[in-house]
Design brief:
The protein has 5 helices and no strands. It is mainly alpha-helical. The longest helix has about 30 residues.
């Protein structure tokens, strides 16, 4: 099950998602990728390979942007599904999150 399907399960059937450990699976998916980037960046620094370091850092930043967007959307979707208006208001009011649109 990919992360979008896991997120859908969290929003649509939270109890089943918890039984299946979806939150843990999502976290491990992202955390394992962080470990991969950490290894690539460390190796590039050790080898003093500036082009490889630049590529690895750019890829890591792109990954972080994607992960942040995924989790912000997930929180908003959960808040909407459970009528958590205060949570939605916090996200809408926060300047840094105004560009996020729930798809």
């Amino acid at each position: 099950m990919d992360r979008e399907n896991q997120a859908e399960l969290l929003v649509g059937d939270y109890k089943l998602a918890i039984e299946r450990g979806v939150e843990t699976v999502l976290w491990k998916h992202h955390y394992s990728r962080i470990g991969t980037f950490r290894s690539e960046i460390t190796a590039a620094k050790k080898d003093r390979n500036a082009p490889a370091l630049t590529v690895a850092q750019a890829a890591f930043r792109e990954f972080l942007d994607d992960a942040i967007f995924f989790y912000v959307r997930l929180v908003i979707r959960l808040a909407e599904a459970h009528s958590l208006k205060r949570v939605i208001r916090i996200f809408v009011m926060h300047q840094a999150l105004r560009s996020f649109v729930v798809c």
